[in-house]
Amino acid sequence: MTTHSEVAKGDSVHRGNPVTVDRYSAAARVNHWITAISLVLLALSGLALFHPSLYFLTGLFGGGALARIIHPFIGVVLLLSFLGLFFRFWKLNLWERTDNVWLGRLKDVLTKNDEKLPEVGKYNAGQKMVFWSMSLIIVILAASGVVIWQQFFSEYFTVDQQRVAVLIHAIVAIVAICVWIVHVYAAIWVRGTIGAMTRGRVTGGWAWRHHRRWLRELVSDKSKGKPKGVTPAE
Amino acid sequence: MFPPIQNPTTEAVPPKFGEADLLRRSASTITPPAERQTEVAKLIDVSKCIGCKACQSACLEWNELVEEVGINTGVYDNPHDLTPNTWTLMRFTEFENTETGNLEWLIRKDGCMHCEDPGCLKACPAPGAIVQYTNGIVDFVHENCIGCGYCVKGCPFNIPRISKVDHKAYKCSLCVDRVAVGQGPACAKACPTQAIVFGTKEEMKQYAATRIEDLKSRGYANAGLYDPPGVGGTHVMYVLHHNDRPEIYAGLANNPRISPMVEAWKGLTKYAGLTAIGAFAAFGFLHHLVSGANRVSSADEEAAKRLAEGERT
Ligand code: HEM
Ligand code: SF4
């Protein structure tokens, strides 16, 4: 049914016991962890200013003034780093008809009835939604963040514009943190996922269970003699 | 009516109010003292101001501030705006009164209004960086200030300024240090026409009433007291000859109030935000508790193996 490839450069299957599948290159993983660390630091330093009960979090950054100073600079790192992830991942995150089917069976997703779900490519609908919402969120946070970056940009915006921006920034930051919770929870709940971003590999069983269309394509690429595909385990 | 305030004694005087007299403290929950100090106020009678800027000089002097030498662009305002060092500024407006055909020179001493409901304090995220004493004085506590600029967004009068040197917020303190030992603000002391006077808020309102009556008798039918209710009243008030149009005085806010944007940011967003984060985290926790981990089975591994070995499944 699908005509496009679900396989990214570098993805490949290794025979063995268990079968292992390369999912993320070292560069993609480094890129991911820079983004992840930036996002966590931004959430911590931002939340510190968001609510008085969380002001103690400024202690992690060496005090209120330092937290205030460092936050927007980490924001710049996040924006650049996420841009890298965006160009790596956008293509396989394009929405497809089967994603609607998957989403319609969210109840089966949550109750682990994986066999009732359509076969999924490299990313399922949930992962795609995290990807696209984060893309949008980070652009909004960066844009509104610049408007409230007192030290360098306060002269360029009216106070009224800054009021709108700070409200948007606070609300969207909360959304970002909620999306982040979903993302991290999914990675923990679906056992075997975290290895994809640490070692870069998952087991064949994981791929079979959660991303079968991706696995099938990887295997059949090999049988058609394409460079990516099955290689004996080293 | 106001004899010159006596010079203080050279003896050390204990301050009349302090930490125990806080009505509000930024980003903190405090219990205000049972008894409020008498509310104080500075009254600025715009109709009596001659624009000499003695108040500006006195402010710099008392608060040990130095303003940069500026550039004359053909207006009397000097400097051209409030700055981290200029906490009070004479703003000059040439107003053509179409009713009388007169050119009126409106001179307004701008600076912090010491709002009863201060937007700066509401917006401030740093505990204790902005405090409000029970006598109404709103003061910035610089050692607690983190330089985020939120007070600028909170203030309906566009008063606080962030220093480019130490990145902290500055504004008029109503000479809190002088008032604490029974003195009036430096600007009031320096004013040669007593256009600026200082006392209890009640006294100031009563005195303003006499001034307004006088102005009305001179043909200023709309003379009145500027003590805007939108911010709960202020502890710096103006007598204006045209109280119906405060905006003609170099843009003095007509019916100021804390921006609804700021109210939403500091109100609903805060509580809804923390609730949302808590709800998402709780959902994850409970879901894991109920459903358990989603584990790959050995059957999955077998199936993958068969697929990789080339057997059709
Ligand atoms: C992407 C670029 C970003 C920029 C340029 C930026 C900039 C800023 C600035 C200038 C402030 C005001 C405080 C300060 O000066 O430090 C702020 C506050 C804040 N930021 Fe960001 N930020 C960015 C991303 C993020 C992200 C990704 C998050 C959350 C995950 C976040 C969460 C917050 C929060 C919660 C606040 C406090 C808002 C409040 O006080 O209500 N920011 N940000
Ligand atoms: S005028 Fe502005 S800075 Fe002064 S108390 Fe009111 S809100 Fe705060």
TrEMBL record, chain A:
<feature type="domain" description="Cytochrome b561 bacterial/Ni-hydrogenase">
    <location>
        <begin position="23"/>
        <end position="200"/>
    </location>
</feature>
<keyword id="KW-1003">Cell membrane</keyword>
<keyword id="KW-0813">Transport</keyword>
<keyword id="KW-0349">Heme</keyword>
<dbReference type="InterPro" id="IPR006471">
    <property type="entry name" value="Formate_DH_gsu"/>
</dbReference>
<dbReference type="GO" id="GO:0009326">
    <property type="term" value="C:formate dehydrogenase complex"/>
</dbReference>
<feature type="transmembrane region" description="Helical">
    <location>
        <begin position="69"/>
        <end position="90"/>
    </location>
</feature>
<keyword id="KW-0472">Membrane</keyword>
<keyword id="KW-1133">Transmembrane helix</keyword>
<dbReference type="InterPro" id="IPR011577">
    <property type="entry name" value="Cyt_b561_bac/Ni-Hgenase"/>
</dbReference>
<dbReference type="GO" id="GO:0022904">
    <property type="term" value="P:respiratory electron transport chain"/>
</dbReference>
<keyword id="KW-0812">Transmembrane</keyword>
<feature type="transmembrane region" description="Helical">
    <location>
        <begin position="130"/>
        <end position="152"/>
    </location>
</feature>
<dbReference type="GO" id="GO:0036397">
    <property type="term" value="F:formate dehydrogenase (quinone) activity"/>
</dbReference>
<keyword id="KW-0479">Metal-binding</keyword>
<dbReference type="GO" id="GO:0009055">
    <property type="term" value="F:electron transfer activity"/>
</dbReference>
<comment type="similarity">
    <text>Belongs to the formate dehydrogenase gamma subunit family.</text>
</comment>
<dbReference type="Pfam" id="PF01292">
    <property type="entry name" value="Ni_hydr_CYTB"/>
</dbReference>
<dbReference type="GO" id="GO:0015944">
    <property type="term" value="P:formate oxidation"/>
</dbReference>
<dbReference type="GO" id="GO:0005886">
    <property type="term" value="C:plasma membrane"/>
</dbReference>
<feature type="transmembrane region" description="Helical">
    <location>
        <begin position="33"/>
        <end position="57"/>
    </location>
</feature>
<protein>
    <submittedName>
        <fullName>Formate dehydrogenase subunit gamma</fullName>
    </submittedName>
</protein>
UniProtKB/TrEMBL annotation, chain B:
<dbReference type="InterPro" id="IPR015246">
    <property type="entry name" value="Formate_DH_TM"/>
</dbReference>
<keyword id="KW-0408">Iron</keyword>
<dbReference type="InterPro" id="IPR017900">
    <property type="entry name" value="4Fe4S_Fe_S_CS"/>
</dbReference>
<keyword id="KW-0472">Membrane</keyword>
<dbReference type="InterPro" id="IPR051555">
    <property type="entry name" value="FDH_Electron_Transfer_Unit"/>
</dbReference>
<dbReference type="InterPro" id="IPR017896">
    <property type="entry name" value="4Fe4S_Fe-S-bd"/>
</dbReference>
<feature type="binding site">
    <location>
        <position position="148"/>
    </location>
    <ligand>
        <name>[4Fe-4S] cluster 4</name>
    </ligand>
</feature>
<keyword id="KW-0677">Repeat</keyword>
<dbReference type="GO" id="GO:0051539">
    <property type="term" value="F:4 iron, 4 sulfur cluster binding"/>
</dbReference>
<feature type="binding site">
    <location>
        <position position="191"/>
    </location>
    <ligand>
        <name>[4Fe-4S] cluster 1</name>
    </ligand>
</feature>
<dbReference type="Pfam" id="PF09163">
    <property type="entry name" value="Form-deh_trans"/>
</dbReference>
<keyword id="KW-0411">Iron-sulfur</keyword>
<feature type="binding site">
    <location>
        <position position="124"/>
    </location>
    <ligand>
        <name>[4Fe-4S] cluster 4</name>
    </ligand>
</feature>
<keyword id="KW-1003">Cell membrane</keyword>
<feature type="binding site">
    <location>
        <position position="112"/>
    </location>
    <ligand>
        <name>[4Fe-4S] cluster 3</name>
    </ligand>
</feature>
<feature type="binding site">
    <location>
        <position position="155"/>
    </location>
    <ligand>
        <name>[4Fe-4S] cluster 3</name>
    </ligand>
</feature>
<keyword id="KW-0249">Electron transport</keyword>
<dbReference type="GO" id="GO:0045333">
    <property type="term" value="P:cellular respiration"/>
</dbReference>
<feature type="binding site">
    <location>
        <position position="187"/>
    </location>
    <ligand>
        <name>[4Fe-4S] cluster 2</name>
    </ligand>
</feature>
<dbReference type="GO" id="GO:0015944">
    <property type="term" value="P:formate oxidation"/>
</dbReference>
<feature type="binding site">
    <location>
        <position position="115"/>
    </location>
    <ligand>
        <name>[4Fe-4S] cluster 3</name>
    </ligand>
</feature>
<feature type="binding site">
    <location>
        <position position="49"/>
    </location>
    <ligand>
        <name>[4Fe-4S] cluster 1</name>
    </ligand>
</feature>
